[in-house]
Design brief:
Blueprint lengths: L4 E4 L1 H9 L6 H13 L5 E5 L2 H9 L3 H11 L5 E5 L12 H13 L4 E4 L10 H10 L2 E7 L8 H13 L4 E5 L7 H14 L4 E4 L7 H10 L4 E4 L13 H8 L10 H20 L6 H4 L4 H5 L3 H13 L6 H14 L9 H15 L7 H7 L12 H11 L19 H10 L6 H9 L1 H8 L34 E7 L2 E7 L4
Parallel strand pairs: 1-8, 2-3, 3-4, 4-5, 5-6, 6-7, 7-8
Antiparallel strand pairs: 9-10
Helix pairs in contact: 2-4, 2-11, 5-6, 5-20, 7-8, 8-9, 15-16, 17-18, 19-20, 20-21
Bound molecules: cobalt (II) ion.
C-alpha cells in the first residue's frame, strides 16, 4: 500500500494560524535546511496572508522572501495558496494580472499553486488554472469545505470532477475552519478517489480537535497527501504536528518509513521554531493553542468566533453573543449558503451583527449586498429574492450573473496601466512590482520609499518563557493580519476588525 505523502505548512499556514502571520524570513531561514532535507512532499512557503502581512507589517518585498526560501529549500517542491481571481487579496483582478502573477511566481520557483474561491465558484478559478498550466506549474483545484443543507458529499465530489475537467493536476479538500468530521472526510475523499484519476489531498486545522482524526479517516479512504506543521506552530488553530501525526500513524499500512535521522532533524526544526515562537510572543495566544469546542457548537471558524467576541464586547453587546451567532445560519441561508472563509466569513459575521442590532436586513453592508447581487460570484444556492431586492435597493446596483471580473462598468487596471503608474513614480516597473502594486499599492509605495513599518524588534528572552498566565490582549486572538474597517450607520460609527481565516 502506498504510504501517505506528508506536506509541511509551517512557513505559511503554521505562523498564519498561530502567530498572526508575523514570522520574518530571517526567522525561517535557520529551519530551512532541515525542512528541505526531511523528505516532505511539499513545503507551503508563500501566499495566503503572508504577502499582505510581509508588506504591511514586516517591510518585506514578497518576491524577496520567495527567492530566499527557494534558495534555502531547493529540493522540495514549494506550494502557495492562491484565491483564484482575487490572487492574494479580496478584489477581483483582470485575467492579465492573474496570469502575470502566476507566471512571475513560477519563474521565481513556485511549483504548486493551490487555487480556491471563497464561494466555490469555479469560474473564478479557471484563469488561474490555465495560467499555471501555461507557466509549467502545478494547478491544484481546491474545494472549500463547509457544512450546510446544500453542501452534500455528492456536491463536493461533483466539484472535484469539474476541476479535473478544467485541467487541475490534483484536487485539495480544504477545511479552513477545521470543522470536517472524520467520517464525512472519509466519504468525500473516498468518492473523489473513485471518480478521479488525479491525486487527492486534504488540508485541515486542529481548531476543534478533529484535525488528526480527520487525517486518519482520509488516509483510510486513500487520500494521497496531508498537510502538517511543526510544533509550536502546530495543533490548535494550526495543522497537526508532524511528530504527533507520525505517532498516530504508527503501525498503519500507509505510514511512511521514518529514519532516526529524520526524527532527530524534526527535533532540531522544533528547537529552532520554539525560539521563533517565543520571539513572536506579542502575536501568539493561548486561545489559539487549545481546542475550541465553541467552534463546533456554532459551526463557524475559530478565528471568526474570537474576533466577534472582542467586537461585541467593544460594542457593549456581550449579552447578544448567542443572538448574533444564531443569526449566522439565517444570513448564510439568505445568501445562498456561502462557505465561511476569508472574506465571506467576515461579511457574514458583520451582517449577522447588523441584523441583530438594527433588525433583519434593515441595514445591509455593501459587501453583503455585493454577495447577494453576484459580485463575488455564483453562490452555492439561490439567494433569497427578497433580500436580493433589498440589497439592490440599498446598494443602488443591479444583480449580475456573469463572472464578477466581467461585471458591466467594472474599472480594472491592467498590466500596462500598472506599469505606467510605477514608471510615473520612478519605481521599478517589472512584472513583480506590477502585480504587487495591483494588490497593495500604498504598502508597496511605502516599502519602495523606505517608509515601511519597522518590524517589531526581536527581544530575545533569557530562556524560553513558560506560557504567560496573563490574559491575551484582543489583537492576539487573530489568526492573520487584522484590519479595521469603519462603517457609519444612521450616523452611528461602528468599527469592525477583519482577519484571515485559512
Ligand atoms: Co489552512
Amino acid at each position: 500500500m502506498k504510504s501517505v505523502q506528508l506536506n509541511n505548512n509551517v512557513l505559511r499556514d503554521g505562523h498564519q494560524s498561530l502567530a498572526a502571520t508575523r514570522m520574518r524570513t530571517e526567522q525561517m531561514l535557520p529551519a530551512c535546511e532541515a525542512l528541505d532535507n526531511w523528505g516532505f512532499g511539499a513545503l507551503e512557503t508563500w501566499g495566503g496572508a503572508t504577502i499582505d502581512s510581509g508588506l504591511r507589517f514586516l517591510d518585506e518585498f514578497p518576491f524577496d522572501r520567495l527567492d530566499a526560501l527557494k534558495k534555502a529549500c531547493p529540493k522540495t517542491p514549494h506550494m502557495m495558496l492562491l484565491r483564484g481571481q482575487n490572487i492574494v487579496q479580496y478584489a477581483h483582478f483582470p485575467d492579465d494580472v492573474v496570469t502575470a502573477f502566476i507566471k512571475t511566481s513560477a519563474d521565481h520557483g513556485m511549483n504548486i499553486f493551490r487555487i480556491f474561491d471563497a464561494l466555490n465558484d469555479t469560474r473564478n478559478m479557471k484563469c488561474a488554472i490555465d495560467a499555471c498550466k501555461a507557466a509549467g506549474a502545478q494547478a491544484h483545484g481546491t474545494i472549500c469545505y463547509t457544512s450546510s443543507p446544500v453542501h452534500t458529499v455528492a456536491k463536493f465530489i461533483e466539484m472535484g470532477v469539474e476541476l479535473e475537467k478544467m485541467g487541475a493536476d490534483a484536487i485539495v479538500l480544504k477545511d479552513m475552519a477545521g470543522l470536517i468530521p472524520p467520517m464525512e472526510a472519509f466519504a468525500i475523499i473516498d468518492g473523489l478517489k473513485k471518480q478521479l484519476k488525479i491525486p487527492v489531498w486534504i488540508h485541515t486545522h486542529d481548531t476543534a480537535g478533529l484535525g488528526a482524526s480527520t487525517y486518519m479517516s482520509a488516509i483510510d479512504a486513500g487520500v494521497d497527501a496531508i498537510d502538517l506543521s511543526v510544533s509550536p506552530f502546530a495543533n490548535g488553530t494550526g495543522q497537526p504536528d508532524t511528530t504527533r501525526m507520525l505517532a498516530l500513524l504508527q503501525g498503519h499500512p500507509r505510514c511512511p518509513e521514518i529514519s532516526e535521522q529524520q526524527r532527530k532533524s524534526l527535533r532540531e526544526v522544533r528547537t529552532h521554531l520554539e525560539k521563533a515562537y517565543a520571539e513572536l510572543g506579542d502575536f501568539t495566544s493561548h486561545k489559539n493553542e487549545v481546542i475550541d469546542v465553541d467552534t463546533l457548537e456554532y459551526q463557524v471558524p475559530g478565528g471568526m468566533l474570537s474576533n466577534f467576541r472582542t467586537q461585541l464586547k467593544e460594542q457593549k453587546m456581550e449579552d447578544q453573543f448567542d443572538a448574533v451567532f444564531r443569526e449566522i445560519p439565517v444570513v448564510r441561508e439568505a445568501l445562498g449558503w456561502i462557505p465561511l472563509v476569508t472574506p465571506t466569513s467576515q461579511i457574514v459575521g458583520m451582517q449577522a451583527f447588523l441584523n441583530v442590532k438594527f433588525g433583519r436586513w434593515k441595514q445591509i453592508s455593501p459587501q453583503a449586498a455585493d454577495i447577494a447581487l453576484g459580485y463575488y460570484g455564483r453562490c452555492p444556492a439561490p439567494v433569497d429574492p427578497v433580500v436580493q431586492k433589498q440589497a439592490a435597493k440599498q446598494a443602488g446596483k443591479e444583480p449580475i450573473t456573469c463572472r464578477p471580473v466581467e461585471a458591466p462598468g467594472a474599472v480594472h487596471k491592467h498590466m500596462e496601466d500598472l506599469r505606467k503608474e510605477l514608471k510615473a513614480k520612478n519605481f521599478p516597473s517589472d512584472d513583480e512590482h506590477c502585480v504587487i502594486h495591483a494588490m497593495f499599492p500604498p504598502q508597496l509605495e511605502k516599502h519602495l520609499k523606505g517608509e515601511g513599518p519597522k518590524p517589531n524588534p526581536v527581544v530575545l528572552p533569557a530562556e524560553i518563557p513558560k506560557a504567560a498566565p496573563a490574559p491575551a490582549p484582543a489583537a492576539n486572538t487573530s489568526t492573520g493580519p487584522q484590519k479595521k474597517y469603519g462603517l457609519t450607520i444612521n450616523g452611528k460609527r461602528i468599527e469592525v476588525g477583519v482577519e484571515e481565516i485559512v
